[in-house]
Design a protein that fits this description.
This protein has one domain. It contains 3 helices and 6 strands; from the N terminus they run E-E-H-H-E-E-H-E-E. With 85 residues, the chain is of the alpha+beta class. The protein binds zinc ion (2 copies). The site of one zinc ion has 6 residues, from helix 1.
Amino acid sequence: MDPETLMQCPYDKNHKIRACRFPYHLVKCRQNNQSVAKQLVTCPYNARHRIPKEQFNLHIETCEHKVSIEPYGGKRMIYFNWSNC
Ligand SMILES: [Zn+2]
Ligand SMILES: [Zn+2]
């Protein structure tokens, strides 16, 4: 993923964060939004995705990172592609 891509913060829709800063922002913003954070679930396909509980099933169906799960050695592995910047 392009590290300059803007991503929307799951805690505050007004936050747009560059992809390379996203993990840091999530940590910081979660502390400021504890009540929202409790309602969010981490996507099993991409640790950067935080989804409201009620949308979790839908997200699992439609997650764009689903494709990054590939059969490997008979097992299915999940790749978390954190960009290094
Ligand atoms: Zn935020
Ligand atoms: Zn996802």
